[in-house]
Amino acid sequence: MPQPAPTVGIIANPASGRDLRRLTANAGLYSSTDKASAIQRLLAAFGATGVSQVLMPTDMTGIAAAVLKASHGPIAREQHWPALELLDLPLTQTVADTRLATRLMVERGVAMIAVLGGDGTHKAVAAHAGDVPLLTLSTGTNNAFPELREATSAGLAGGLFASGQVPNTISLRRNKRLLVNVARQNLCEWALVEVAVSPQRFVGARALSRSEDLSEVFACFAEPHAIGLSSLCGLWCPVSRHAAQGAWVRLNPGAEHALLAPLAPGLLQGCGITASGFLAPGVPHGLSLASGTLALDGEREIEFAEGDNPTITLDHQGPLTVDVEAVLAHAARHHLLAVPRGHRLHPANPC
């Protein structure tokens, strides 16, 4: 019996790629027009691989409106884009919009959610997506979790997975995460990339991008080419996404060894490293500071005081993501994108 044509969700954070670091670190701007264009390339790829419907939330920056207009145009008809349904949500222009859109998509039974944003956006979606896989696209400032890739190739991989043409065992990857427990505050949060410990006592401006504001960094994975706080581990004690362990570094301005690290796009700073090591899964790690703040995936969220004794624990229960490279490699080996002579995209057919 043929599988029913799948429905997928698309969530693009209107605010991603537009934060203060555009001013302090000369980071690039990812505009609403850029995001709308990337979504249109996703839709073309989804249409070519059998996705029938796409759910997408409304927004106040014109992304959804631009995509909706394009979906009624000649290119969309020629490329057989999936039907587009906009979710008309009560908008707050905060992360609550992303969380609500994710929950509604899960309730509607989407096969996958494509996410356009940075680390914070992906964490917000992952927290409410359950086991619905994410197709990750980088459009933020800190982009360690979503890898940089073209929306067209990502869309082909996502469509092949969502339409059941590539097995889950090949398509999907379970990611690591860092659990942050503050028992005295009855608090448990988690991060997808890193947790940074700062001696600053108040959350204040959330982004951390100065070496003097850092005491420790714990990372799920740390790649040498990363930008952001995880680059401290990536350039000192790298660990891959696929490795079982994580990594950590301890910092002090008076350290003998200083590491030149890109703490944000265009922002290189010398950071004194006093100690480093690897994180074994399931082993709680205490902090070297008695009080301060914790930044999860680049944003300060948690204040802790003496006696709170937060712990950081690595586990392998993070979100499922579509492994774009693995899916496309499988498609190439099995010629999944080959089309017969009667197919609308075969060159022998008249336009």
TrEMBL record:
Q: Does the keyword Kinase apply?
A: yes
Which InterPro entries does the UniProt record give?
A: AcoX-like, AcoX_kinase, NAD/diacylglycerol_kinase_sf, NADK
User: Which molecular-function annotation in GO is an example for this chain?
Assistant: kinase activity
Has the keyword Acyltransferase been applied to this entry?
Answer: no
Sorted keywords for this record are: Kinase, Transferase
Under PANTHER family, the record lists: ACETOIN CATABOLISM PROTEIN X
Protein name (record): NAD(+)/NADH kinase
